[in-house]
UniProtKB/TrEMBL annotation, chains A, B:
Swiss-Prot/TrEMBL catalytic activity: L-homoserine + NADP(+) = L-aspartate 4-semialdehyde + NADPH + H(+)
Needed co-factor(s): a metal cation
Gene Ontology molecular function: homoserine dehydrogenase activity; metal ion binding; NADP binding
Pfam families: ACT, Homoserine_dh, NAD_binding_3
Residue span, ACT domain: 352-430
Keyword Signal recorded: no
Pathway, per record: Amino-acid biosynthesis; L-methionine biosynthesis via de novo pathway; L-homoserine from L-aspartate: step 3/3; Amino-acid biosynthesis; L-threonine biosynthesis; L-threonine from L-aspartate: step 3/5
Organism expressing this protein natively: Desulfallas thermosapovorans DSM 6562
PROSITE patterns according to UniProt: ACT, HOMOSER_DHGENASE
InterPro entries: ACT-like_dom_sf, ACT_dom, Asp/hSer_DH_NAD-bd, HDH, HDH_cat, HDH_CS, NAD(P)-bd_dom_sf
GO biological process, one term: threonine biosynthetic process
Annotated family: Belongs to the homoserine dehydrogenase family.
Name the record gives this protein: Homoserine dehydrogenase
Amino acid sequence: MSVENIKIGLLGLGTVGRGVYRIITGNPENIKRKVGAGLEIKKIMVRNIDKPRDLDINPAMLTTNIEDIIDDPEIKIVVEVMGGIEPTLDYVSRALENGKSVVTANKDMIAVYGKQLFALSDASHTDLLFEASVAGGIPIIRPLKQCLAANRVTQIIGIINGTTNYMLTKMTEEGSDFADVLREAQAKGYAEADPTADIEGYDAARKLAILASIAFNSRIVLDDVYVEGITKITAADIAYAGELNYIVKLLGIAKETAEGVEVRVHPALIPRDHPLASVNDVYNAIFVTGDAVGDTMFYGRGAGEMPTASAVVADVMDAARNLLHNVPGFISCTCYEEKPVKDMGATEAKYYVRLEVTDRPGVLASIAYAFGDKEVSLASVLQKHTDGDNAEIVLVTHKVRERNMQEALNIIKQLSSVNEVANIIRVEGD
Amino acid sequence: MSVENIKIGLLGLGTVGRGVYRIITGNPENIKRKVGAGLEIKKIMVRNIDKPRDLDINPAMLTTNIEDIIDDPEIKIVVEVMGGIEPTLDYVSRALENGKSVVTANKDMIAVYGKQLFALSDASHTDLLFEASVAGGIPIIRPLKQCLAANRVTQIIGIINGTTNYMLTKMTEEGSDFADVLREAQAKGYAEADPTADIEGYDAARKLAILASIAFNSRIVLDDVYVEGITKITAADIAYAGELNYIVKLLGIAKETAEGVEVRVHPALIPRDHPLASVNDVYNAIFVTGDAVGDTMFYGRGAGEMPTASAVVADVMDAARNLLHNVPGFISCTCYEEKPVKDMGATEAKYYVRLEVTDRPGVLASIAYAFGDKEVSLASVLQKHTDGDNAEIVLVTHKVRERNMQEALNIIKQLSSVNEVANIIRVEGD
């Protein structure tokens, strides 16, 4: 029995698009055996047809006209790897309305417009798959939706931004400063010319919104996520953390609590023996805790042409198999609950606090009193003489409400012997 | 629209069976929303109906008669968690022949009789799902079959036996001896009274056969796997490995090479900074390398009531969804190739070798000569004076064929100054 090829339209031929083209054209027999039908890229939308490309590609496949893809009844699956919101959201919406299954790597779009897109996908009984939108090649969306489906997920802690993880790894290994490492990362192509989305935590926040939506079966959007980047992390903080047996990482944390879903991205100290502590360089990892399975972790490359394309093509193969068996939209949106998002002031964490103080009798007592007054209890204290009359005090608190911590810090900032609250960083994972 | 519950027959109510019962009866609404229909355990086959159980269970659900399950047309899914081959293989075969989907946690059965069972499942268009048979709660079967489907998997390295990983972790952390740690593991219930299957590597070999079959799309059975256990690992080996910056683990290794599929279970030294090196205690992890995705790792609890039940119930939910959408057998056996298994003598590795020698001039030279003669080149050498005229020499080789290594060792054993080849352990992962 010979089955017709399933035809695909590709939106975008940048880094990931090229990877998708390479995998689909590179091993057609393997894909055909796994899916039950061949995959065939029919049209590719690009901005400029004449741009030189290091791909052996028939120019007749290229188009600048979106209608050549979304109005072609032969094309059953649209693969969106052009990124951005405008005009991508419009293209993807129209593709779904026209009954095409869509595979996307676009975290920006899913983290903000997921709800309306899934509604379109449900209405047209099509697949909307997005494994590549979080953590590149690491399987995490399908494992959460299927493999861990018997669990109530209680917590996700992820290293889900490769750029910042590379930078923090370098700062940890070489004791270098933020600005130097950023320049190096830009030179290597790990950080963009405008690094804001990475270093301020927005990229991680988008991915966390997507993960939390699936884990807790309730739609979480980018705006729900508390975000703090890594720009204030210094070599000194990393060195003190090391002395205390911690590693500094940018974490995305999502928890289900009695007061709602907690979603936050910020740098954090994690214990050196935590599985996430040894996730280095551009690698990503997602640590998932379920009520039945306990702790699990998914590790791999969170970005790059071929890892991301690996996830995109796996989704295309699933969408194709679903079409072949007449079950498109087989496993669709799983946000069937509406859970409140917890106020950041009500979240709890341990805190690392670094203070610049004038080194005179009673300074530590006045600081400890201010913390105690707001019910912040201290787990450990390091005091270092720096120069002249100055000293640095590094404290780690026990678990405390964010709100109490902020109140205590406001008082401490006013103390005459405290020159500066140099940094505060949450402590997680122990 | 009200959809009827999907009825399940459970074979076995031991540790995993109780976990399955608890999950399915514990959160029915959650499962129903995810699957689209409720799950209902109709009958449970046990050996002794009157045995006291710490479960709130209707005695009328219990039976000792297999026909009450496999001949009941209402029962659509049979969950096999009784273990063993006899009579389990017969029960599972008959369930598949009767058109029931089967979910099993039975690695012994799948690693040996997988081929014939998948043939039955194909013929009757039913699901045969077995996520729980490898690494307990860790999602690995479905990620290999679907999420990494766009890859050619080149290599799998797994810590897939919790008992031995617990023992090696204790030996590493506490410097204790094999026999003491085994007694402790037995006291804690991590090792069985007869620990052979774990400590001799057979349990890991069964899981590796299953993983390799999926990764390389070619049926690998238990007999194909080279197996070496951890009984010869001493506190001294672990200490020397540490000096050389390695950790000792029991690994399951599967590689696709030009000369065939390589499948072997044996202890190995891995670099301290390898992601598998920090997988400790009873945790399992599977490190998978694909041509597109690069390195990935899946980490979690490899055994236990609830983690294993988590995987079983996820499979049951998939099987139920497939029935509901009329696509049972949706993703079936993927062994559509027949690849040869590589001869163990042709495999390559680096080796750690510990020799007890008489400490006299020329001893190292004669050893080095014997290695050189068989084209074994040395990467590092440690020599330690022990007592009287005796010394211990610890060598690490560069990569060499197993066959050459064995020939070199045969010559070295004959050298008059070599009292004993105390241990040889492969070095992997760098």
